[in-house]
Write a structure and sequence with these properties.
CATH topology: Rossmann fold
Radius of gyration: 19 Å
CATH superfamily: Creatininase
Number of strands: 6
Strand content: 5-15%
Largest sheet: 4 strands, parallel
Distance between the termini: 32 Å
């Protein structure tokens, strides 16, 4: 069974929609992930999870969106960032196109963790209100919270960016792109408050949002760009994590199918 929309002919899409109306939209980023992981890590995570979940659930996957909101990562070469307003409008146009054709249950699968969540949830909220479609936003870090806590071995602060979980996950599905000889641990000190770039659930501190400029981010994460401890990553952890998140995504798809949907708007983006 084909799962990728871009590999299908329009007649195949028409026939599929007579049986099912679920589609997954993978969204990630192109940004630095330390000296040991590729720039496309977040997008690759969303793509791998979307493909496997779609195969198990009999759903389709839209072409991936490789760019996200990554201004702080501009501190390192190769990062491409788009404005949050651009991401909101892009997601809304993609989803409106899909809804117009009859995909009435949409799962936006975000591989970029917290940074993309605000634009994506704004877009999803507007789409729900304006079209009546089922539009959910899922991120492996959050929909896989319990398995993430189980497989990790790193100390508090060990999860952040290009960390134990992200590295383990990538080692599982495309390990040839990782260079573990360059993986370096970098856990910053936590004072009274836990700031934006430290969202490890094991950190016992009250949280405050404080965006970092590119210059500040470079100082905090130099010399590699890592926040956390990727040195404890293994392919085995990545496989456990991947399979559990796929299972959760399949369950989410089934919940979406069981949800009543009343479409009230199917405008073509113009």
């Amino acid at each position: 069974m084909k799962v990728w929309l871009q590999e299908m002919r329009w007649e195949e899409v028409r026939d599929h929609l007579q049986k099912d109306d679920v589609v997954i939209i993978p969204v990630g980023s192109t940004e630095q992930h330390g000296t040991h992981l590729p720039l496309g890590t977040d997008s690759m995570v969303a793509i791998a999870l979307a493909e496997d979940a779609a195969k198990e659930a009999g759903a389709l996957v839209a072409p991936p969106i490789w760019f996200g909101w990554s201004p702080h990562h501009m501190a390192y070469p190769g990062t491409i960032t788009i404005r949050p307003e651009t991401l909101i409008e892009l997601i809304m146009d993609v989803c409106r196109s899909l809804i117009y054709h009859g995909f009435h249950r949409l799962i936006i699968l975000n591989g970029h963790r917290v940074a993309n969540m605000a634009p994506l949830t704004i877009a999803a909220t507007r789409l729900r209100e304006q079209t009546g479609a089922y539009v959910a936003v899922a991120d492996p870090f959050f929909i896989g919270d319990r398995i993430g806590r189980e497989v990790r071995e790193s100390e508090p602060g060990g999860l952040g960016h290009a960390d134990e979980l992200e590295t383990s996950h990538l080692l599982y599905f495309t390990g040839e792109l990782a260079d573990m000889s360059k993986a370096r641990k970098r856990i910053g000190a936590v004072g009274r408050f836990c700031y934006f770039h430290l969202h490890d659930p094991l950190i016992e501190a009250d949280s405050v949002f404080l965006s970092s400029t590119a210059e500040e981010f470079k100082r905090k994460t130099a010399p590699t760009g890592v926040s956390g401890d990727p040195t404890l990553a293994t392919r085995e952890k990545g496989e456990r994590y991947h399979r559990a998140v796929v299972e959760n995504l399949v369950a989410l798809i089934e919940e979406a199918r069981a949800t009543n949907v009343s479409i009230k708007g199917t405008e073509i983006p113009v």
